[in-house]
Amino acid sequence: MTAEFIKLYKENPERRKIEEITRILKNGGVIIYPTDTVYGLGCDIFNQKAIERIRQIKGIKNKHLNLSFICYDLSHISEYTKHLDTPTFKLMKKTLPGAFTFILESSSKVPKILNVKKKTVGIRVPDNNIPREIVKELGNPIITTSIHDDEIHDHATDPELIYDQFRNLVDVVIDGGFGQVHPSTVIDCTGSEPKIIRKGIGDVNLIS
C-alpha cells in the first residue's frame, strides 16, 4: 500500500477531492491532514480497525490513549460530551474555530467508540476548512492525534517530507501547505474553572 498524495487549498477545498477522502475514511482509511496547528493523523471515529491502526502507527497502548475528536462546529459536541455549562459553551463559541483543544467530560458514547474507559474527550474545531469540510461530508467527527508527540521539527511541517515518512503507513497524505511547529492550546474544562494545561498557538488571553 502506498498512500495517495492529495493537494488541497484551505480557502476553498475541492469538493471532488473531499468526497474521495471521505470515501476512503468510510472504508477504514487513515489520513494525515493539515489543521491550524500541526499536521494530524486521523480516521473515522466509528471504525475500530482504523483506530487500531492509529494506535499501532503511534505506538500507543490503550491506557495511554489520548485522542481528540475533530468536529465541524459545536452542533455535534453534545453527542460526545456530558452537559456543557453555559460558561464553557460561551468560551468554546468565542474561541472556535481556533487553535484550541477542550478537554470535556465524555458521554457514554466515547468509551464504546475508543474501546477503552475514558472519562474525558478532547474536542477540536480547527480554523482550517480542509478537516472541517471532510468532517462535514463524513457526517461525524474524526479521531485525531498529532503525527508527532515530541518536539515538532521542520520535517514534520513539510507535507512532502511527511509523505516520505508515512507513505507506507497511511492511505492519504493531504498537502495543505506547510504546518505549524506548535500545537493547540489545551484547556481542561472538567473542573469548576477552565484550566490551561498546555500553552500552544491558541491565545490564552481569550480564556477569561
Describe this structure in words.
- This protein has 208 residues and is of the alpha/beta class.
- Helices cover 29% and strands 21% of the residues.
- The chain has helices at residues 15-26, 48-58, 77-80, 86-95, 109-114, 129-138, 159-166, and strands at 4-7, 31-33, 40-44, 68-70, 100-105, 120-124, 142-146, 172-175, 185-188, 195-198.
- It is globular, with a radius of gyration of 16 Å.
- The N and C termini lie far apart (48 Å).
Give the gist of this structure.
With 208 residues, the protein is α/β, with parallel strands linked by helices.
Write the layout of secondary structure elements.
Blueprint: E1 4-7, H1 15-26, E2 31-33, E3 40-44, H2 48-58, E4 68-70, H3 77-80, H4 86-95, E5 100-105, H5 109-114, E6 120-124, H6 129-138, E7 142-146, H7 159-166, E8 172-175, E9 185-188, E10 195-198
Helix pairs in contact: 1-6
Count the E strands.
10
Strand ordering within the main sheet: 1-8-2-3-7-4-6-5-9-10
Estimate the mean pLDDT confidence: 90
Count of runs of 4 or more consecutive helical residues: 7
Secondary-structure class: alpha/beta
Question: Compute the gyration radius: what is it?
Answer: 16 Å
Biggest β-sheet, characterized? 10 strands, mixed
Low-confidence stretches: none
Binned, the helix content reads 25-40%
Give the N-terminus to C-terminus distance in angstroms.
48 Å
Provide the succession of SSEs: EHEEHEHHEHEHEHEEE
Query: What is the 3D shape?
Result: globular
Query: What is the strand content?
Result: 15-25%
What keywords describe this structure?
single chain; 208 residues; alpha/beta; 7 helices; 10 strands; globular
